[in-house]
Amino acid sequence: MLFSEMLDHGQDDAVAIVDPQGSVTYGEFRAAVAGFAARLRHMGLVKGDRVALWGYNSTN
Predict the structure, then answer these.
(1) Per-residue model confidence (pLDDT) at position 1
(2) Phi, psi of 16, rounded to the nearest 5 degrees
């Protein structure tokens, strides 16, 4: 599922992601994505710019 799709689903207090280290609610996930987007905008990125993300399958 894409980040944008996950942001459209679930109540804020419902669990969105679970891994052996813990879980993240939809509300926490939305807040993390919003914070990441704000940092990208602060760096000068604008709507339409392309961004790649390489990470681990983890709640961290």
Answers:
(1) 63
(2) -105, -40
Tokens in use for 19? 């891994």
17 closest CA partner among 53, 45, 58: 58
Complete DSSP assignment for the chain: --HHHHHTSS-TTSEEEEETTEEEEHHHHHHHHHHHHHHHHHTT--TT--------SS--
Whole-prediction pTM value? 0.74
Task: Return the number of other C-beta atoms located less than 10 Å from residue 7's C-beta.
Answer: 14
Sign, Cα dihedral of 26, 28, 29, 31: positive
